[in-house]
Write a structure and sequence with these properties.
Length: 434
Amino acid sequence: MFKLGASGTTVGQEIRAGLTTFMTMAYIIVVNPAILGAAALGDRGIPKDASLVATVLAAAFGTILMGLYANRPFAVAPYMGENAFVAFTVVLGLGYTWQSALGAIFIGGLLFVALTLVRLRTWLAAAIPRSLKSSFAAGIGLFLTFIGLNDTGIVRLGVDKAPVKVGDLTTATALLAVFAFVLMVSLLVKRVSGAIMIGILATTGLGFLLGLQPLPARWAALPPSLAPTFLALDIRSALTWGFFPVILTVFVMDFVDTMGTLIGLSARAGLLDERGNLPEIEKPMLVDALATVFGAAVGTTTTGAYIESAAGIAEGGRTGLASIVTGVAFLGALFFTDVLTAIPAFAYGPALIVVGIMMLRPVTEIDFDDYTELVPAFATMTLMSFSYNIGIGMTAGFVLFAFVKLVAGRTREVHPGMWLLAGLSLLFYVFFPY
């Protein structure tokens, strides 16, 4: 069913990869509800307990479907960034209800289903030049590295005119993070199978032994009720003209995040063809769209392919079996949330840094002597990381690619689909509710 032999993998390798991916993204079980509930001025935030269940169900639904239908090692979960946009911009900043925001996400998901079925998303993905596709993988690698450095405390927020600084490397948690990084790299150099997973588990165990991470308060419990968020979305209020900027922003962010993540992860897994395209990309795109519709219905924000899947790919994940393992682990998490979310940032953060290293290789495919290729690729890579948003980097790259080709008088090198992507990206910046 999964064509393990043809993909050069084994059942054991896929199971290890699926569990590694789950461990690097288990934080989403707690973080996503916390962000969505942060708009709790009064009762404006999404109820946290129900949001936790919705987060897990959306991740399990999308990830298992990715394995069964698309046969790809890509985990699916509610996007970080989009959740903050809903909580802090749409609800707190613009004053809309979270029910209306979920309605907008539901509409966006239905649009994605339609666009995928008519293969428009596939056509647009094929329109992206090789240099930008290479920058997606490298940019996501830098983004993962920056996340890992922040999560572990190796890099901290700075002050005005010096926005980041080195953290206190004398703290026990920072030292454990450095230890985890060195351990993972050492195991990788020696080509030990399961290097990343071994590093995460060993560091978590040390954290427990040294008292730096508390043991779970309870080992198992029944999940909370989903009732407060199930089918609570308000589609009617989302279909007003005033909500157009929100729908456009959600649409573009999900569109480019998914495309960039799929291409970047596929480049790392060696799944792209000779032209840099992912064969049958419409399958994972349809899964992404259906997961977004499902997620909004149960009570969470835009759901799609997760960049942390790169950790499982680095462990050898090549087929949908890895995704099914990750999805089943998410379902199990409904009953063991305290245990699974006890994996500390100083244990999984170094894994993101290591994966970031592994994802830099495609940068060598960019033509550094051609500024019409280099400048858009550079903007994509840097803005993905420095704006802390994959979508910002990709949309900037689309606009710049069309612009510099126009200035150079080389518009014949721009695929018609790229003009559409550039125009859509410009609309994104014009209507973004800053």
